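Whether sequence alone determines local backbone shape is best considered at the level of individual chains. The sequence in question and its structure tokens are set out directly beneath this paragraph.

===
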Amino acid sequence: MEVVIRKDNKGFSITVLQKRLLSTALAITFIFCIIFARLLYVQLVWGTELTLKASDQWNREIPVIAQRGVITDRNGTILAGNRTTYSVFVRPNAVKNAQYTATILAGIFALDPKGLCEKISNTKVSEITVAKQADKEKIEKLVSYNLSGVYYSRDNSRTYTYNDALCQVLGFTSTDGSGLSGIEKYYQSILAGKDGEIKYSTDIVGIQTENSVVVYSQATNGDEVRLTIDIDIQMAAEEAMKRVYASSNAQSVSCIVLNPQNFDILALVNYPSYDLNSVPRDDTETLNALSRNIVVSDIYEPGSTFKVVTAAADLEEYFSGNKSAFSPSYVFNGSRTRTVDGTKIKCWADHSNGRHSNQTLSSALNNSCNPCFTDIALSLGSKTFYKYLQAFGFGNVTGLDFNGEALGMLVPQTVVTNGDLARIGFGQTIAVTGIQLACAVAAAVNGGNYYTPHLLKSIVSTDGKTVAEQPAVLKNKAISEKASSLLAEMLEGVVTEGSGKKAFIEGYRVGGKTGTAQKYEDGHVAQGKYVSSFCGFFPANNPQFLALIIVDEPQGTYYGSAVAAPVAKEIFEDIIKIKKIERYV
């Protein structure tokens, strides 16, 4: 039975009324809590975003573009610089006469006046870009009209001092100045700098107010990237490679020149090339082909230039006491045809004429005799031989400061057969990049030191101070100085007495090794297609310069001794003149 304390004149229970009042109070309190929570969210969480939106409605910014850092050679000669240009844009809300403004702008910047007028008349858009990289003369003409709502700001157009020289190394930038390839891309964070801005207040429709406070944020220009490249050596190499490209009618030619004492890259050439000041942006296929740095990104069978590595492994193992290695005085029987796993391996020479039948390691290098190097690889065995392949950097990247470096191709040691090992010994069944081979030969003749190759020499701030330098980084000791010294002496003999005679320079000690490798297509030998090469260095007793020359598919004469070795001689002779290097006798 319900107990009622008292009733009002309508007979309602006081207890029921109290319940309803309590429910109403709770509902009101809940609503106020929601409103209060919303206010807190707006103030604490959403406040920054709303402030920025309000600021954007009442303020306008004109960008101040940072000047991109220059790229220079090792001596400070500018390779990639800047030309001052301007960007022009329109704020439709601030334009007084859209048709007149469009007509003037279209006349100056060669645009469609009708289409431009439609864009300017669209007041829902806060800003449109009219032109980029406009020259000073056009801006001066624009200023003379004093058009309302039209603004301009300075930007930078990249210029390249030597046009197509180093094009695959330097790379290029986008229209807004960001690096897209090469050094421009790899060192984008150093070159880019930080943009500034000019900020001023406007009314609700975007027109600058009277007594507007102008706030200027200064741009921070990018730093200079100084490369190891020597532009004088680079230009000498460029000219030499263009000549052999024309004379051999090759598919492509490449060259890398480095300092064997620290692996500084002094020159790097790929030809054909393209003009960095006129990048074929509308032809993607052509641009991709011509901008590819094939010395770093493409692989090929090195052929007989690889025999330098096989000889280095044999000498080091001999001096280390390995009985499986051959002594420098051991006489190989090079006149026979050797069959390994069903594959016949013979020397290129005509043995019926009795040419170099019996020879030492030095003579085998001179004559580039395949069976001798097959003997070495098989005698050392896969475990020992692969130890040197790894020490000389094959099957891995060199660590060059450049995007897109290829690994090369090396049969895994766990599955390599005797037939594979035999062919690797003279440069087949292995694929390398140009930079891999150049570094390997450099380490083989410089005392055995394998460094990380590099293109960066230093970073220089806008006030001319060196803020960072790239030191020589020793990765490993590939062979001993004793083995390296004897190998360099043997390779000097290749130039004075053997297949590399066309690289000989009277009065200078040049060493090197020729190579002629067949090309493969779809797993089969491509008839009549070869890669001709030569890797040389000087002075042979203390190498300071090393050059690798690669000529892909030369027509007519295709031996590396006839096609590539003379090019190395040209480059070395130019280096001698440039550096004023005196004869040793």
Notes: The radius of gyration is 36 Å.
